[in-house]
Design brief:
This protein is α+β, with helices and mostly antiparallel strands. It folds into two domains: about 200 residues, Beta-galactosidase, Chain A, domain 5; about 375 residues, Alpha/alpha barrel (Glycosyltransferase). It is about 35% helix and about 20% strand. The protein is built from 14 helices and 28 strands. It has an eight-stranded antiparallel beta sheet with strand order 6-7-8-11-17-15-14-13. Strands 1-2-3-4 form a four-stranded antiparallel beta sheet, with no helix packed on it. The protein is globular. Keywords: Hydrolase. It comes from Poritiphilus flavus. Pfam families: Glyco_hydro_15, TREH_N. One of its GO terms (molecular function) is hydrolase activity, hydrolyzing O-glycosyl compounds. This is Glycoside hydrolase family 15 protein.
Length: about 600
Amino acid sequence: MDNLDYGIIGNCRSAALISKTGSLEWCCLPEFDSSSVFAKLLDTEKGGSFEILVDDSYEISQRYKKNTAVLITKFSDGDNIFEVHDFMPRYYTESGKYHAPPEVARHIRHIQGKPKFRVHYDPKLEYALGKTKTYVKKNFVVSLTTKEKFDTIFLYTSFNKNAVVEGRELEVTKNGYFLLGYNEKILQPTSRKIYLDLERTKVYWLNWTNRTPTYNKYNKEITRSAITLKLLSYDKTGAVLAAATTSLPETIGEVRNWDYRFCWIRDASMVIKVMANLGHKNVARRYLQFIIDLIPDKDEKLQIMYGINKEKTLTEETLDHLSGYKGSKPVRIGNAAYAQKQNDIYGILMDVMHAQLVRFSTDIENGEELWGITKGIVWIVTRHWREPDKGIWEFRTEDRHFTFSKVLCWVAIDRAIKVARILKKTRKLDQWVPLEQEIKQDILENSWNKKVNAFTQSYGSDHLDASVLLMESYGFIHARDPKFVSTVKAIGKDLNNGGLLYRYKNEDDFGLPSSSFTICTFWYINSLFKIGEEDEAMKLFDQILGYSNHLGLFSEDIDFKTKRLLGNFPQAYSHLALIECAVNFANKAGEEKVLESMRE
């Protein structure tokens, strides 16, 4: 498999990746950031997988059940056909709570004939650090490891358990199932019960997507991206993950391999803003509660990222026994970036808080706590906005005065002023308004570079940076301001490579980037659209949509030459930016339609 040709299934507790041939190759249980049960994605020999194997006469195709997170892989040799419907159960119970157990269900649906397949069932618990032994018991198959720490996984099936474990041929004559559970079941599963779980899970997703507006253009892409963002949200605390994986490399054979199964304040806040715009109130509310829970002390500085269960220490380790995706070592778990200083997160958080207050001001819970956080953020920004930091791209070397960080410091104060007005708490404004003006002036004077006729990556630098395009999105500058227009054009000239964008072209800690950071291309497309270059924007948008995998999913990066997907997958950043672009185009198309009908 040369591309990240995987589908994601999940239930807002954990997730699994299934290849386009129906092989389960990445799954952590019981939660997103638990150790892996299957990690063939990161080591084809040692990682472990759960594969459905057929002979060469079968054609294999894959799709999502429309408007759901149920993945269907179809196996057909013309006469004999069956499907695997993969899902992780998630649905309302009679008590009004969500049922989302740490389980992967594989419903085997008989279509016609007597299709045959074999199973390669090879769990490798605890990141395959020790030996995993598998035993066939009366009611289930149990796999366990004791080396690193004790861990178990249970497999229930309607097929012959010994034949499954030994990889012998199985015949499909009626519907059947596999149920992989982190916990031993109290009631023995049945084919009927698994089918019922499948139907209930489908209904959950259909109801969820029904709350997303319908667009007359790019609706399919918007819906699939929204479902993917929902799959990366962790129900228990409200955290939103950057991606479902760890250590998928930004460039094959290099060392830019990071664990993304955490909640970055920046990524998550951007996701929440987009999801709230699509009408998904609860995701936004849960995330705001996550933030409130993280800030118990008024003088506590916000970290750039946290564990999904609000952990503050994310110690980075390497798993040297795993060979890495396509041999790209090291495989990392944990992420040392949690200790970095990035001044932009305060503005991003204030922006999302302000957006929620505007949208839900009549029924906003936690208003007093949000006002407390607002004052705390202003206090921190006031004291630290003049300091350099690591920036949005998390340079691991020296700190700089990054333009993006400074703009977001301005956003923090601008939104705090707006929040104060909404909450009628105006006594602070005589201090905050001059501060907002001071930061804005500082940016206009120091980040504008006459030589390149653009706002640059950092103060005094000649380097361009795609993150500067967000100045307009955050309201710092008008889209038609000549300085913004010339910045967009300069970035297009310097960072555009065949319709895909570099984040920046100056060398970082690891040399020159050789892949495109997917979100940057979407930012550029959005900026072109805003400055009036709509045809060019649409052309580039349609082009990048063609680089998604077979299911419309995107990772973090795209290789400039081969267009293969690289980096962690699926990436929340990429899908939130896709939605922003698509909604702009769809709204424009809707406006044009209205004008046409008026003319008629």
